[in-house]
Amino acid sequence: MAAAAAVPLPRAADDGLLLQEAIQGAIHILDSPGFAAMQSGNVPALEWLLERCPGLVGGRSAMQAAGWYCSLPLLQEAWALLSVACDTQPLLRSALEGAAGSPTADAIAKMEWLL
Q: I want to staple 95 with a disulfide (CB 3.0 to 4.6 A). Which of 38, 50, 63, 76 is the partner?
């Protein structure tokens, strides 16, 4: 039987760079104005952001926050706004991720509505 070829491990410098990029990406997602608006359930702020600076909203993170923090009616309002402005497949996944981990009493109802 032939010996398996050794797979080179990433260099430590590369690991640090990848980690730094991942952290910056996560901070960017969580720092999006849309995330902040939906974290507080502020649908009018989300609508205002979409009208004035749609590129800065962060649709996926906003939907994840809506799934996690908001009630079903607020999630539905956020979906109505964001599904017009963004690709719906990534939005749906993000909303489901948020709803699945949601501590709200209507978490299952949110997931049922999304599916």
A: 63
Per-residue model confidence as pLDDT tens digits over 64-80: 999 999 999 999 999 99
By the 8 A CB rule, do 96 and 113 touch?
no
| Residues contacting residue 81 through CB under 8 Å, at least 6 positions apart | 43, 46, 47, 50
Look up residue 99 and give its amino acid.
A
Quote the crossing angle between the two packed helices 88-100 and 59-69, to the nearest 10°: 30
Q: Are 66 and 78 in contact (CB under 8 A)?
A: yes
What tokens does 115 get?
A: 């599916």
Q: Which residue's structure tokens are 């359930």?
A: 41
Integer Cα distance of 68 and 73 in angstroms: 13
For residue 38, the 8-state DSSP code is: H
